[in-house]
Amino acid sequence: MEYQNILHQIQSELPYQKAIGKVASYIPELEKVPKDKFAMHLYCLKSGHYHIGSHEEKFSIQSISKVFSLSLAMSLIGDDIFKRLDVEPSGDPFNSLVQLEHEEGIPRNPFINAGALVISDILLSKLKHPKEELLAFISGISNIPTINIDNDVFESEKKHSYRNASLLNLMKSFGNIENDIEEVLDFYTYQCAIEMSCKELSSAFAIYANEGKKPTTSIALIPPSKIKRINAIMQTCGFYDEAGEFSFRVGLPGKSGVGGGIVAIHPGQYTVAVWSPPLNPKGNSELGMYALERLTTLTGLSIF
Ligand SMILES: NC(=O)CC[C@H](N)C(=O)O
Asked: What does the buried/exposed string (b/e) look like for 262-281 if buried means 16 or more CB atoms within 10 Å of the residue's CB?
């Protein structure tokens, strides 16, 4: 079946899915997003773009931003980041405090909140203008001239950051946070409030499917050895305590966010972004996972 037909096939199946997911409400602004929004954008490196739904509508990328901040930190200090965090799946919810207490303030991986907060701390220490430089980094890898944040989401999450503040305080008590807690929290919350569309996300993730190069260019913006590692962490840790289930059902490295977005890549083949706000109990987009499972099944293109 041709790719555009496959996407239409997936779209036609959606109304028959048992939808019990709930839009994230712990960040009040996210709850205002209509739950029936849906978009999917497939970018095949060789044959181009295919899409269904509101693929140009921007939404809050939330934890998908953790891939960008990890990439920037790795390009600044390389493997030294792994002195401050690990690369093991956590098997716990994304905002859990439990492991930190036993593991001396070293987060399991960069894609749970604790790990992403350490990455934010690293970027704050290394960059003069961290917010602008992170947005410029995303713009540079994606060919999107301007990347913006949703200020209402930013303010809304800042007022409800109790858990992230706890994670930071706990890690600071173990000596694993250098900067002022309020500053780290502000920067982390800012990166989570970045808004992008499925079309934009599939372009921004093309370098992860293309050995660090933007399609049609020959210079790697991120060395292939680092891309290999980032993709490995997406595979093992991109979906918190559902990383195994995502591998089992979809079979691609990827990253989700509580805004209902998921991006996944097939190295050498394609990137795909999907958006549907209702989340399953593990905090991953319920219909997004279904759509990706159907994509790899109908195309026969998973990495396994
Ligand atoms: N999983 C997510 O997308 C979580 C991101 C959200 N900003 C938080 O810190 O809770």
From this structure: bbbbbbebbbbbbbbbbbbe
